[in-house]
Amino acid sequence: MIKNIINIFRxxxxxxxxxxxxxxxxxxxxxxxxxxxxxxxxxxxxxxxKSKSLPGYELIGLINVLSAGGxxxxxxxxxxxxxxxxxxxxxxxxTKVVPSLERLAKEGASGQKKINQWTRWCTVPICIVxxxxxxxxxxxxxVEGIRVVDPVVYGSFWFKPxxxxxxxxxxxxxxxxxxxxxxxxVGNGISLLIMAGIVARMPEAFIQLFATTDKPQVEAVKxxxxxxxxxxxxxxxxxxxxxQRRIPVQYAKLTRGRRVYGGQRHYMPIxxxxxxVMPVIxxxxxxxxxxxxxxxxxxNIGFLxxxxxxxxxxxxxxxxxxxxxxxxxxxxxxxxxxxxxKNMKEYGAFVPGxxxxxxxxxxxxxxxxxxxxxxxxxxxxxxxFPQLLSSIMDLTGMMTSFLGGTSILIVVSVALDxxxxxxxHLVMRDYEGFMKGGGGSMRRR
Length: 445
Known about the structure:
mainly alpha, 19 helices, 68% helix, 6% strand, globular
């Protein structure tokens, strides 16, 4: 491993890409700690600790979900990269359901360039809407017992436009940073920014673990168990993330003169977790609204509010159901068996033992359903594992978030993609690479 890391800095082009990536990530973390104008960071932290026992805490949780967990810093980059991700998801769905956008996406680089430009423009209003939520929380008396901004400062003419402009500019700047990492650095810039935000919270989680008890020996045993479980969960996530169902595909032989073309045998890989982390994100965001809607700050319907409390039976069942629904929904958008069968028939390819056309489409759909069920079950287990661990070992949500849920899925997926990118650069220049055999992917049937 040390030898491969040294090899990265022996290649001038790769070294430049790595340094650019690290430099832009450093800029991102510095900007994260730049406070908004007129906001006291110390008062904010104290107010947030007090707000956990107040009726308006559901409002804070909802806004925090919309800002991808970065809202509570109330810094320049409080909105995080979530506005751009939301815009990207919107256009990804629209290209599958709007015929004009679908035709534009099939035009190649020029069409994708236009869609990317519209995605950037759509990010601006999303930033403004989320910035308005932040501004609403900063208002004096928005939540009982919380005073983050002085009423005189909040009532001044310049404060509201300044906060809206600062948050929107911070979100757009992070979008630009992510694109610069993708173009001039290593890996996907947006994914790396998300991973950096998640990993940066790990030291705070460890501090909380040791600060909540007066028995260091007990915490040492608990820490060892958590370390073992963390390694186990990472191995399982890597195994499922790289897992795929490989369908054999045979190409027909074509004779042209004395030459014979085709006849090769390839494999069509269908990933077990094709939807990646998207179903968990959609399900978590959707279930955040009933908790806020039926809470004391809105409709104040006690039994419904208690039913949607995180970790409860109703919440868990709905969570699993939504994960399965969005897994099939997202997979159906990204993988069309009928279109895949049509393309195979046009290029003279077929699955051995399956007739081309409708039979092939039915076979691919059957395989896709079985694989998606396995992937959705895996996502549901990983998503609920932190809740189960929190109730058994009496840990906070921050401590258990790194053992399941969206955090571990995002970190592992981004890390694997980053290793693949670095590995491909090393193998191209006749270096051994991080994986034996030079391949960047671990394949299995």
